[in-house]
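Okay, any thoughts on this one?
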Amino acid sequence: MQVKVKINFSFAKLSSAMPRIIEKTMSRYARSSAKGAKKNIDKGVKPKLAISTLNIRQKRGITGTKPLFETGNLYRSIKTEKNTLTMLNYGLEHHNGFKTKPNSMIPDKEVPPRPFIEPDKQEILTVIDAFKRDLHKNFKK
């Protein structure tokens, strides 16, 4: 009795394609995160603004009450460059929370985190599916 084995996959092909697959996936993930961050700002992140912050905005002539959207500069700065999510540096501070500077209008105040940086829930499924397809396609001989 003879046994024949036929190989229908190639680790070598997958190995050579992995850097490109990872780069594409990271780029898709960054785009999804930019879209998700903007969506989160649009719907309003928690916690809501403190009365003191609303008063400061009013003194500056800004009527908006939505967190992370005082002038719109942060919102407009959320973009992707190749496989990287970029935004104004204070975006990450608001995401993680921070303490105000001693010379600010409300010195040394703990500003609570307002986590808003995350991939779009619908789009991330597409990113995962595309990653699986790329793996499967490049695993075949």
Summary: The chain has a mean pLDDT of 93.
